[in-house]
């Protein structure tokens, strides 16, 4: 039996979180971590686990207080926080390319250009339904695409580079408690006033560094998206790649995407099955501000 003590890597503002009395166990047959359904039948184990976790929690908080914690945290949508002194801003798009050219087999469904997203409006900075990434990230994504084509799948892109003005739009929306048009679809389990405190929305995003992509798989046989057991940008534990509530088939689909992306040079996010960042991203400390458009990639000097 194991418990989870998470410093939600890029989530919840760097705060350590433990869920009580949720207990987790490893299914040796399937090699998966699964949630125990009947905690009441294992009270001694649950109590012991919680006591140990509580002790580690206190140690973790002490460590954060001393070290200042990580300078980056992220949640659904890839939101991140970075210490203001560490932020470099740039309007230079010269190292960015269009994914439609760099990864021609990919299907684009740019959610923030449409109104089908957790805000319910087109997001600031998305001037065209295109996707941009740094050249390095696009090259790695092409490797993933080629590997999946051989298996009968294509990549479907929901988001890639995200300008800071889009992140600012998210932040303004999060502070408007009256606008809950899309709650039913994207955050039914949460009160909107908890999106900032719990780190689902933040002032900066790793997407703005240009080497992060949100995506899923498209099955060429069925002509449909692969069933991942949860929607893109859903705010909740259902979006965790190893969430125990999905079926074996849905878990297998999540792991297929994850494995190919890792093999292609990306690192996953523990809270979002769709979110991947280039392991050796070229601009780890730079946040870009140019708009999402063909002109930004073609001009090479931003907008």
Output the helix-strand order: EEEEHEEEHEEHEHHEEEHEEEH
Largest sheet: 6 strands, mixed
Strand content: 15-25%
CATH architect. name of the largest domain = 2-Layer Sandwich
Spans where pLDDT lies below 50 across 5 or more residues = 1-41, 55-76
Cα shape: globular
- How far is it from the N-terminal to the C-terminal residue, by CA? 53 Å
Number of strands: 16
Based on the structure, what is the oligomeric state of the protein chains?
Answer: single chain
* Structural class by SSE content: alpha+beta
CATH first level of the largest domain:
Alpha Beta
Count of discrete structural domains? 2
Average residue pLDDT: 81
What CATH calls the topology of the largest domain is: Muramoyl-pentapeptide Carboxypeptidase, domain 2
- Secondary structure tally, helices: 7
What share of the residues lie within helices? 25-40%
Radius of gyration: 20 Å
Explain what you see:
The protein is of the alpha+beta class. The chain has 2 domains: 6-67, no CATH class; 79-299, Muramoyl-pentapeptide Carboxypeptidase, domain 2, CATH 3.30.1380. 27% of the residues lie in helices and 19% in strands. It is built from 7 helices and 16 strands. The strands form 6 sheets. Strands 8, 10, 12, 13, 14 and 15 form a 6-stranded mixed β-sheet that branches. The chain has a two-stranded antiparallel ribbon with strand order 1-2. A hairpin with a 2-residue loop joins strand 14 and strand 15 (272-278). The longest helix is centred in the first third of the chain and has 25 residues, at 43-67. The radius of gyration is 20 Å and the shape is globular. Mean pLDDT is 81; it is low at 1-41 and 55-76.
């Amino acid at each position: 039996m194991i418990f989870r003590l998470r410093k939600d890597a890029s989530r919840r503002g760097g705060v350590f979180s433990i869920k009580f009395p949720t207990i987790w166990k490893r299914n040796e047959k399937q090699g998966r971590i699964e949630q125990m359904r009947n905690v009441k039948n294992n009270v001694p184990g649950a109590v012991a686990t919680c006591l140990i976790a509580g002790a580690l929690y206190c140690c973790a908080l002490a460590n954060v207080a001393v070290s200042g914690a990580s300078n980056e945290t992220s949640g659904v949508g890839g939101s991140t926080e970075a210490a203001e002194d560490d932020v470099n801003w740039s309007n230079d798009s010269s190292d960015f390319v269009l994914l439609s050219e760099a990864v021609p087999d990919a299907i684009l469904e740019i959610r923030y250009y449409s109104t089908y997203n957790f805000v319910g409006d087109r997001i600031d900075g998305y001037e065209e339904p295109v996707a941009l990434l740094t050249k390095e990230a696009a090259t790695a994504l092409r490797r993933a695409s080629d590997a999946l084509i051989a298996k009968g799948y294509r990549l479907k892109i929901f988001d890639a580079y995200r300008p800071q003005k889009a992140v600012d739009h998210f932040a303004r929306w999060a502070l408007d408690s009256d606008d809950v048009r899309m709650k039913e679809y994207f955050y039914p389990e949460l009160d909107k006033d908890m999106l900032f405190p719990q780190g689902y929305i933040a002032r900066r995003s790793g997407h703005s560094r240009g080497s992060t992509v949100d995506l899923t798989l498209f099955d060429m046989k069925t002509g449909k998206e692969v069933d991942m057991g949860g929607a893109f940008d859903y705010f909740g534990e259902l979006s965790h790649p190893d969430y125990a509530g999905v079926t074996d088939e849905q878990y297998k689909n999540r792991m297929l995407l994850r494995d190919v992306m890792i093999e292609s040079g990306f690192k996953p996010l523990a809270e979002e099955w769709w979110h991947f960042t280039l392991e050796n991203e070229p601009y780890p400390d730079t946040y870009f501000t140019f708009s999402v458009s063909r002109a930004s990639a073609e001009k090479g000097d931003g907008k």
